[in-house]
Design brief:
The complex is a heterodimer of chains A (305) and B (235). Chain A is mainly α and 305 residues long. Helix content of chain A is 73%, strand content 4%. In chain A, the strands form two sheets. Chain A has a two-stranded antiparallel ribbon with strand order 1-4. A two-stranded antiparallel sheet of chain A has the order 2-3. Chain B has 235 residues and is an alpha/beta fold. Chain B is globular and about 45 Å long. The chains are: A mainly alpha (305), B alpha/beta (235).
Chain lengths: 305, 235
């Protein structure tokens, strides 16, 4: 294989990795602060992508033509809407079950995800069909041999990376992040310090869900197409990435996301049938989990985030 | 200076640890101790005051403010701080971050910096280890950190739950000296302890709890001579 092709595979892998990492960070945040798995996360991503698409059509109908304005507006609209949806779900579905077995939260969010998915299919105009997603980013490209670097992909990759770094800085450097970490490590002592635990949970879920919306919009802009079921696989992959990395650990989620993308890319290179790449990646995830049951970056004595 | 009045408090909690109509008064500017053996209801009393286990009946007043029915973070905002049983430092945070968590409700950066310096003066060891993860420190150091964290918000009322538990006698003595100095600075203290002798030595007044009821109360030197206390603790 020549260097250009190798570079292309690596870059495509990075693109997938950043999308997976954004989803995985959400799973890891929710688990860190509340010890729950929120299985509707992938479907929140889907709804975010559709909110973005609807915003685009709305602005388009209003006569907005500037591509940067459209791209920025639909991304912000998707993130704000999903941030609000995430907080609402935390307030009305997840927190009420706080003292119930964790399996109940898993089940109820699984059902909530199905509701979201089916709502799109039933009520979004022709929601059962795949929807073309507008190409709003500049597609200038730089070609070196068999390697093509497209500006839109570079932008998507940079925005995703900036979002993850931003979340990391928020968690490690800000007063809010201090509250989130305190609540994650010992919720009762956090309350004794004067931290409003419920507020911390809502903010964390809003943050993770906004990140999922960004991942959904990124996927839409990257593939130029979205559909009501896109969040199913992305959710499962993001969850696997978070678990492989070490659930509750931010670095682990990012590592897991890029690892899964790398495995998929390898699978795509080695097997001529494209569908095998997921079989290959998930099979290796199973092997990794057998080798390191607590994830690659293992929790030390139940300490997280 | 501020006082804490508990009136006819009844709290049910896990069935095992229950308060039946407990009344007590932690006077402004004093150290008031709560003595009692395991299961007497001391921890439940603290949890009720902090709003972690809401009481079934009765009232708890900090100064003029009723605490029952308020969430914990609002109670703390009234000027109450707690040094919880078992230190409860945040293990994966640095010493400095733990202290900042203690000042979570303080908005003024200057006040936070002053409090930090004051805690570092009181416990120079914490300054040396400011960037170390709290979970990697010894029990004695964690106890210092827990006390320092409780002081970061400059509380008017400090609730301290079993500060001597699991510490060597030397550390216990040091920590009790710190508590006394804090009290000298005008902070009212509610001190829950099993270590009767040293506790009564620094307290102004005390209450003895047994099976969820107040069985003895009075000035510290009177309590020391109380036959029930003597029989139970001094043998």
């Amino acid at each position: 294989m020549d260097a250009g092709l190798l570079g292309q595979y690596i870059f495509n892998g990075l693109m997938l990795g950043i999308i997976y990492a954004m989803v995985a960070v959400g799973f890891t945040l929710f688990f860190g602060v509340l010890d729950v798995i929120k299985f509707s996360h992938g479907d929140v991503l889907t709804v975010g992508a559709f909110v973005g698409l609807a915003t685009y059509h709305g602005l388009d109908a209003l006569g907005v033509t500037s591509a940067p304005v459209l791209a920025l507006s639909l991304t912000l609209a998707a993130m704000l809407a999903m941030g609000a949806l995430g907080a609402l779900m935390a307030r009305w579905i997840v927190l009420p079950l706080r003292n119930a077995p964790a399996i109940n939260v898993l089940l109820i969010t699984l059902m909530a995800g199905t509701v979201l998915r089916e709502l799109i299919r039933l009520f979004y105009p022709a929601g059962a069909n795949p929807k073309p997603f507008p190409r709003l980013l500049p597609t200038d490209s730089l070609t070196m041999g068999s390697f093509t670097l497209r500006l839109d992909n570079v932008i998507l990759l940079s925005v995703g990376a900036a979002a993850i770094v931003g979340v990391h800085l928020l968690i490690t450097r800000s007063r809010l992040g201090l509250a989130i970490r305190a609540a994650a490590q010992d919720s009762e002592t956090a309350r004794i310090m004067g931290i409003n635990f419920q507020m911390v949970v809502l903010v964390t879920f809003a943050l993770g869900s906004a990140l999922a919306a960004l991942a959904g919009v990124t996927a839409g802009l990257y593939y130029s197409e979205i559909n009501f079921g896109m969040g199913l696989l992305l959710g499962v992959i993001g969850f696997s990435a978070a678990v492989v990395g070490g659930l509750g650990n931010l670095y682990g989620a990012v590592l897991g996301g890029f690892l899964f993308a790398a495995l998929q890319t390898l699978g795509a290179v080695w097997f001529s049938v494209p569908a095998y790449k997921d079989v290959f990646a998930f099979a290796l995830v199973i092997l990794i989990m057998a080798w390191r049951p607590t994830g690659l970056i293992a929790e030390k004595t139940a300490e997280r985030v | 200076m501020i006082d804490l009045r508990v009136h006819e408090l009844t709290t049910a909690y896990d069935r095992a640890d229950v308060l039946h109509g407990v009344s007590l008064h932690a006077r402004a500017g004093e150290i008031t101790c709560i003595l009692g053996s395991n299961g007497a209801g001391k921890s439940t009393l603290i949890r009720s005051v902090l709003g972690l286990t809401p009481p079934r009946h009765g009232s708890i007043r900090l100064g003029d403010e009723e605490l029952t029915g308020r969430p914990t973070h609002r109670i703390v905002a009234l000027g109450l701080a707690c040094i919880p049983e078992g230190r409860k430092v945040f293990p994966r945070m640095s010493v400095r971050e733990n202290l900042l968590a203690g000042a979570y409700r303080v908005r003024a950066r200057d006040d936070i910096r002053d409090s930090l310096e004051q805690v570092f003066r009181t416990f120079p060891r914490l300054k040396e280890r400011a960037e170390q993860l709290a979970g990697t420190m010894s029990g004695g150091e964690q106890a210092m950190l827990s006390i320092g964290r409780g002081l970061m918000s400059r509380p008017k009322m400090l609730v301290i739950d079993e500060p001597s538990l699991g510490l060597s006698p030397l550390f216990v003595k040091e920590n009790f000296n710190v508590i006394r100095r804090v009290n000298d600075g005008g902070v009212s203290v509610l001190l829950v302890e099993q270590n009767v002798k040293q506790t009564l030595a620094i307290s102004h007044r005390g209450y003895v709890l047994a099976q969820g009821r107040v069985v003895a109360q009075g000035d510290a030197d009177v309590l020391r001579e109380n036959p029930e206390v003597r029989r139970a603790y001094f043998g």
